[in-house]
UniProtKB/TrEMBL annotation:
Residues 513-687 form the Glycosyl hydrolase family 59 C-terminal lectin domain. It catalyses: a D-galactosylceramide + H2O = an N-acyl-sphingoid base + D-galactose; beta-D-galactosyl-(1<->1)-sphing-4-enine + H2O = sphing-4-enine + D-galactose; a beta-D-galactosyl-(1<->1')-N-acylsphing-4-enine + H2O = an N-acylsphing-4-enine + D-galactose. One of its GO terms (biological process) is galactosylceramide catabolic process. Its EC number is 3.2.1.46. The active site is at residues 203, 279. It comes from the Eukaryota. This is Galactocerebrosidase. It comes from Sphaeramia orbicularis. The gene is galcb. Keywords: Disulfide bond, Glycoprotein, Glycosidase, Hydrolase, Lipid degradation, Lipid metabolism, Lysosome, Signal, Sphingolipid metabolism. It is found in: Lysosome. The keyword Lipid metabolism applies.
């Protein structure tokens, strides 16, 4: 029998001279020593059988990451090389880092979907553009590294025209289905990307008529190989409907649940559909986050027979002070410095992804360890075997949701007996991660000495908070690059004139749209200095997923900025009712953007201005006449120092000594009074 020993406690450690039992009878001493050995001696081993002779379990569909829901990869595209490619390698390159099997992306819908808005391929019904945003680029980069990666699209929100004025996308299911199918067709036509799955998600209920129509539209468009995930949210009510409606059942291939807590429902199993945790994790990516990910990657199958788990989000590449900061598999939130951090979830992912592939099959012999933790085993059916074991304790594996019931994990010995076609395996590669919460010196994804098997069995001495992979696959690798540049604050002096003739992306670097969509624009009507600008392009409120603001806004910079000057040239395109602003100390984003406070300096096309303490424009600090009009360029300058603010218009003081109490810090921003066309140019910030 072979042993991989981490720590060892023997019976001889508990001799009579080590236990103070003065005056006790010999037989009483022996009895107490026996009890101690039962409770404290981890050399007693529990046995587990790994056998394919009794049949196999479900087919494994892969581990993935989610870009979007929303704008979670916003800053990644702005990284300079080689750092951007290094980050992508850690995520997607096989046998290097996370080596992800699946990339799921948001089908942008022009609306706020957690940390920002992502642009739609169809802002309007007669508008199609398959080069907006960065998800196309990301899918191509993933595919470049792993040609076999599975691609999934899911819309969170939709442009307003899809709902014909209603904040609901399914009253006109034929329009919505055509909109989604156009995105899939565009992915292939313009980027040679084959989308394999499309999700359907709404939080009120699911629409069976829409699902059936989407299946019909996909098939009619030659996309019969594209599979549908429904409801990409909850187990119910979709499960009951699938069991009652054969036509609906034929349309749906995967039941996807979000944050299922490693469990499913009996009805979902009865459908015989693939069961996925199609969005999971969403947890701060420190070591406890890594522990959460380790536990659910195993137990989603052990407890819930889910054959795929997808992390929200792929990479935390958005401003840290937006909601759910650092909830990605790794962190890349400083393109200005080049700094990024390969967090523990990357290496926890590698324990599974580097030694399995979609199409492998789980053994039926998987389960929980006697003293806490779990194990899974998978095979390719060609003689290869991979076993992943985790012993994460409760407090070191708590995910953000749902609540985690109490459980205990203790050190233990576990003996695994290989049977069936695996009995002839003579050697297993061993990879281990130790979280070491007590010493705060974790060691992730370490390659240990291969394990020689002589009788088809091996024993592991498992400590608490460890992950092991034992596998016949020999290609595993802990990839690495030189340390990236040191972390640094956003530059205190920042300028952008947007003068890029052929921008690689539709968004300007470092701007994070929170409501509305700000895109590079070529102003062919202006032969002067404002030919290349940034334009807010939405004129209709989108069908929202969270509560977008009534104004459009894009934030930028360092959330800790206090004293600064913001300058920008602005151009309103709506006569009389148009309005634009520049702002500083903006304190909220994401789903809380409606209630954002800050210092907002507005000018309007009716010749007025105002200064407000909130984005909604209700708390007015100053107002008056400005003489501003639509279709003319104006330069706004906002200066804040301590508790006072002042503003210039075209270089002349328009207002001053506005008194501020809060907020004390926040981002800079630009935006519009409503969903209206407006342009911005020569943006600059100088902060103290």
């Amino acid at each position: 029998m072979n042993h991989v020993t981490v720590r060892h406690v023997t019976h001889s450690a508990f001799t009579a001279d080590r236990v103070c039992l003065t005056g006790m009878e010999h037989r009483e001493t022996v009895f107490i020593l026996l009890l101690l050995s039962l409770f404290l001696d981890t050399s007693t081993s529990q046995s587990y059988v790994l056998d394919d002779k009794i049949g196999l379990g479900r087919v494994f569909d892969g581990i993935g990451g989610l870009s979007g829901g929303g704008a979670t990869t916003r800053l990644l595209v702005n990284y300079a090389e080689p750092y951007r490619s290094q980050i992508l390698d850690y995520l997607f390159k096989p046998n290097f880092g996370a080596s992800l099997h699946i990339l799921k992306v948001e089908i942008g819908g022009d609306a706020q979907t957690t940390d920002g808005t992502e642009p739609s391929h169809m802002h309007y019904e007669n508008d199609e553009n398959y080069f907006r945003g960065y998800e196309w680029w990301l899918m191509k980069e993933a595919k470049k590294r792993n040609p076999d990666i599975t691609l999934i699209g899911l819309p969170w929100a939709f442009p307003g025209w899809v709902g014909h004025g209603k904040n609901w996308p399914y009253d006109f299911p034929d329009i919505t289905a055509a909109y989604v199918v156009n995105w899939i067709l565009g992915a292939k036509q313009y980027h040679d990307l084959d989308i394999q799955y499309v999700g359907i998600w709404n939080e009120r209920n699911f629409d069976s008529k829409y699902i059936k129509l989407l299946r019909y539209t996909l098939d009619k468009s030659g996309l019969d190989t594209v599979r549908i995930i429904a409801s990409d949210n909850l187990w119910e009510p979709i499960t009951r409907s699938l069991l009652l409606d054969p036509e609906l059942s034929r349309a749906v291939d995967v039941i996807g649940a979000h944050y299922p807590g490693t469990t499913t429902v009996a009805g979902a199993l009865k459908t015989q559909k693939k069961l996925w945790s199609s969005e999971d994790y969403s947890t701060f990516n420190n070591e406890v986050g890594g522990g959460c990910w380790a536990r659910i990657l195993n137990q989603n199958y052990v407890n819930g027979l889910m054959t795929s788990t997808i992390s929200w989000n792929l990479v935390a590449s958005y401003y840290d002070d937006l909601p759910f900061g650092r909830d990605g598999l790794m962190t890349a939130e400083e393109p200005w410095s080049g700094n990024y951090v390969v967090e523990s979830p990357i290496w926890i992912t590698a324990h599974t992804t580097q030694f399995t592939q979609p199409g492998w099959t789980y053994l039926q012999t998987v389960g929980h360890l006697a003293q806490g933790g779990s194990y899974v085993a998978l095979t390719d059916g060609k003689g290869n075997l991979t076993v992943v074991i985790e012993t994460m304790s409760h407090d070191h594996s708590v995910c953000i949701r749902p609540p985690l019931p109490p459980f205990n994990v203790t050190s233990q010995n576990a003996t695994f007996q290989l049977k069936g076609s695996f009995v002839s395996i003579k050697e297993l590669q061993v990879w281990r991660s130790r979280f070491n919460f007590e010493t705060k010196k974790p060691a992730f994804f370490e390659k240990l000495t291969p394990l020689k098997l002589s009788d088809g069995s091996f024993t592991l001495n498992l400590a608490v908070d460890e992950v092991y992979t034992l596998t016949t696959i020999t290609t595993g690798q802990k990839g690495s690059y030189p340390e990236p540049p040191a972390s640094a604050h956003f530059p205190k002096v920042y300028k952008d004139d947007f003068n890029i003739r052929n921008p690689p992306f539709s968004e300007a670097p470092d701007f994070a749209d929170q409501t509305g969509v700000f895109e590079y624009y070529v102003n062919l009507t202006d032969p002067g200095p404002h030919v290349f600008t940034l334009r807010q392009v939405l004129t209709q409120r989108p069908i929202t997923w969270v509560t977008d603001a009534d104004q459009t806004i894009s934030v930028i910079g360092d959330y800790q900025w206090q004293n600064l000057t913001v300058t920008c040239d602005v151009f309103m395109e709506t006569v009389k009712t148009g309005g634009v602003f520049i702002a500083a100390r903006v304190d909220k984003g994401g789903g809380s953007i409606r209630t954002a406070a800050g210092i907002f300096y507005w000018v309007f096309a009716d010749g007025s201005f105002k200064v407000t303490n909130d984005l909604a424009g209700q708390t007015v600090l100053a107002k008056g006449e400005s003489g501003t009009r639509a279709f003319g360029w104006h330069t706004l300058t906002l200066t804040i120092k301590g508790g006072y603010a002042s503003g210039l218009l075209n270089g002349y003081t328009l207002w001053k000594y506005a008194t501020l109490e809060s907020p004390k810090n926040g981002w800079a921003a630009i935006g519009t009074h409503s969903f209206e066309l407006a342009q911005f140019d020569n943006f600059a910030v100088e902060a103290e």
